[in-house]
Amino acid sequence: MTSRPFRFEVLARDAQSRARRGRIATARGAVDTPAFMPVATVGAVKGVTPQELRQLGAELLLVNAYHLSLRPGAELIAELGGLSSFMGWDGPILSDSGGFQVFSLAELVNLGEDGVRIRSHLDGSMQFLTPERVIAVEEALGVDILMPLDDCPPYPCDRSRVEEAVARTGRWLERSRAAWRSEGALFGIVQGGVSPELRARSAERAASLDLPGYAVGGLSVGEPRELCYEIASSSADHLPVDRPRYLMGTGTPQDLIRLVSMGYDLFDCVLPTRNARNGSLFTASGRINIRNARFARDPSPPDPRCDCPVCARFSRAYLRHLSVSGELLSAVLNTIHNLRFYLRLMSELRAALEQGRFPVYTSRALAELAGEVRETE
Amino acid sequence: MTSRPFRFEVLARDAQSRARRGRIATARGAVDTPAFMPVATVGAVKGVTPQELRQLGAELLLVNAYHLSLRPGAELIAELGGLSSFMGWDGPILSDSGGFQVFSLAELVNLGEDGVRIRSHLDGSMQFLTPERVIAVEEALGVDILMPLDDCPPYPCDRSRVEEAVARTGRWLERSRAAWRSEGALFGIVQGGVSPELRARSAERAASLDLPGYAVGGLSVGEPRELCYEIASSSADHLPVDRPRYLMGTGTPQDLIRLVSMGYDLFDCVLPTRNARNGSLFTASGRINIRNARFARDPSPPDPRCDCPVCARFSRAYLRHLSVSGELLSAVLNTIHNLRFYLRLMSELRAALEQGRFPVYTSRALAELAGEVRETE
Fold first, then answer.
1. Of the candidates A76, A309, A324, which has its C-beta nearest B297's C-beta?
2. In this complex, do B87 and A318 lie within 8 Å of one another by their Cβ atoms?
3. Distance between CA atoms of A236 and B234, rounded to whole angstroms?
4. Single pTM value for the model
5. How far is residue A235's CA from residue B97's CA, in Å, rounded to a whole number?
6. How far is B154 from chain A (nearest CA, A)?
7. pLDDT tens for each residue of B148-189
């Protein structure tokens, strides 16, 4: 592993929590953590170019190996020089295995020890995902961080099924590690449902493999928020402090602040991009739905404190008009604003950590964001 | 009229045709002609920001007074400082009356001498368009060029109906002129179907009003292309040489080259933007449909000779993947490329006119574009 370019260093820590300010080095550049990854499932963030993503402060994108392997195909992407070149993003890329999609979107045909047999959501073709095949796809894509195939149980779920998922996730992780050849960094995944004991077992087994980073999966799948926080916190405790921790598929701005304080470094979520397409905009004082009639004549920017190119140039009245009219530009501008909101939040969290004012910053930010409950959507 | 900022000067002429290179001055800046106007019907070019439009070379945008008056309403836009401020475009804007939409999209209830009664395509409400109301809407929007309400007959059409349309278009133009108060420039519109005689009558009546510019409407409505050219050419002959001539709602790159040679200065068309959303891309050697399987592994840019930001960064293979996957970014990137194609064509036509090589440039460009017939779509 010493020949791999992936490195993680902790630059600053909060004295009162487990929050840390770090930096990941990859072959395609650095990622300052805590970091939010915009979601580029099929190799594109919906409506936003790589150049714009860079300007908004993105340093790491998330893609989905399962989706890309179905279309356009990992071999095709490899032939064209790898995903970074194919999609025109010169920074680092993290690839999710698509295991989560297997358990949510795709039609699951058979889950066995060898792998998962599913029916493609695109053309109905039979697909057989194994830990080794997922690694092969991710290595063909040439991504910088590889997520292994895992077994992600639903919520709620029998304890025996969660135990099975933990054991299988562990065995699959060992197979993934054995198959792993590329320069990219393989992360371990922790499962275990809402059981602190199973989470600890899963985390310790993953940690024993001495991987470059670790992720906590199987949260934000329907469990109550406080339970999610409790499990996220206890899972983090069982992961090595000198490796980046990635909380998969979460969450709201408030969630990210809470999770950073638990020692998580990496996040991804569809909220900023998906909400944008429905007219829901993040602001420092909570979420607003721009389609609301009260914005019809509002000349102020979406978020008066935002530094994004949309807030610099457009009014709530104009963005409401675009959204109500179903204009393509609505999705584009709203997505740019929401992504900048998330990316700036992470940048502010990093600055607060560097400057020793993390508790002050987060308590003020959480109080302001709570303005959300007063909003009419 | 001398207090209005609108001016048109001819800077260069082609010796062999009626093509001219000119410049329109408006309160919001200059428009170099021949010029193509991107279509921003409801105050937005689909998927492209005003900043991007400026970078692509756009100097004048086209909007639709009828659509904007229905939603968000001309008063609302006026209250927010006018359309230029509302939509974040600081350059000049031309507003079509929406008369053409009345005769194509909306449900026509009654066409009388006073105006047109229609049912809104948005909410079914009854709308009564009159020449005076259209001018009032356009003046509330604060646009730089105002198109009056006209009577645009379909093709084919009885001669008596075309005669009526010519007479009514003329009377409505007089009423529009009487209602016109703003700094914006009112253009006259020529109708007359495919009759050179009726076109001449309509053009001469419009020209007698000594307006800042003139438009030819009612073409590209289904008539054969050669007939369209014939009528466009004869109509131009009856319009004053010292005023800009605008051929409404046309056309392909080949059409624009032909129409420039007839002495037209302004154009608008949905082709570059609408085609983009269907995967149809303009190139110097003809149109291609990027969804075609032969582009699946094609690493070359959409148009190897194009200077747009899409061709600089993305391959045909990637654009095909985005289009086939229905990604939002597909429409955005394809639109940017197609608009740049149109805007660069106009820029090259202007340069050719300035440098006395218009015949050489256009004959080569037309021959290259004819590559289109060899393309498989």
1. A76
2. yes
3. 78
4. 0.97
5. 63
6. 28
7. 999 999 899 999 999 999 999 999 999 999 999 999 999 999
